[in-house]
Amino acid sequence: MKRLFITLAMTATCISFSNNAFSQFFFGVRAGFQMTTQSTDVNSQNLKHPLMPACNAGVFGEYFFGFSGNMSLTADLLYSMEGRKDKYDEKYGDYTFTQQIHFIDLPIAFNLYLLDEKLDLQVGPEFGFLLGGKNKYKYNSDVSNTEHFESRSMAKEEINLFNVGVIVGANYYFTEHIFAGLRASIGLTNSLNEYKTKTHKYEPASSKNYVFSLNVGYRF
């Protein structure tokens, strides 16, 4: 009988702990519009890097710490389109180069809730895993003054397979489930490799991703 009471007590404790842990965990979906660019070490020909429109979408999980109702940890699994658009000065011709890079991003954010848990401030690291990339060229012919387009997939040697960055942002919850948020992603590692014509190989170049996104989401 004593063993039965001990077993029942331990079972009840485990169930209570499991229910409590589960009640602190949530998951959801998010998607959004973003503007992206890269910092590069190419400064010749008055090269400019205007922001390029792109998108993101994915799922997330959020765990609230038991010792505080307004602090949590969030992990996202996101598809993210990133890259840059290079626009040359008019005196070098009407030439535009666009680079689209596709990532699976894993941002992990520490969250602090304010304003009765309506405002969520977040900061943390982000890890990016390469899916692929494409280079696009648009230019005018000097002879016929007609517009030409070219497109090719990036070689695997041109781009790094793994990137690390930092995210900062905020979400605002209109209801318990529906939210909108702003987020900035700042790259810390080189995303591209530059081709060195003298050595005929790709070497790390100073090129880092910067992404500014506006997202909407639903937390279950």
State the main characteristics.
single chain; 220 residues; mainly beta; Porin; eight-stranded antiparallel β-barrel; two-stranded antiparallel sheet; 62% strand
Tell me what you see in this structure.
The chain has 220 residues and is mainly β. The protein has one domain: Beta Barrel (Porin). It contains one helix and eleven strands, in the order H-E-E-E-E-E-E-E-E-E-E-E. The strands form two sheets. The chain has an eight-stranded antiparallel β-barrel with strand order 1-2-3-4-5-7-8-11. A two-stranded antiparallel sheet has the order 9-10. Mean pLDDT is 81; it is low at 4-9 and 11-22.
N→C terminal distance: 43 Å
How many strands, what sense, and barrel or not for the largest sheet? 8 strands, antiparallel, barrel
Give the overall silhouette.
elongated
Mean pLDDT: 81
CATH architecture: Beta Barrel
Total discrete domains? 1
Radius of gyration: 24 Å
Structural class: mainly beta
Number of helices: 1
DSSP summary, beta strand count: 11
Short description:
Helix content is 10%, strand content 62%.
Topology, pairings included?
Blueprint: H1 2-23, E1 25-39, E2 52-64, E3 71-87, E4 95-114, E5 119-140, E6 147-153, E7 162-173, E8 178-187, E9 193-196, E10 201-204, E11 208-219
Antiparallel strand pairs: 1-2, 1-11, 2-3, 3-4, 4-5, 5-6, 5-7, 7-8, 8-11, 9-10
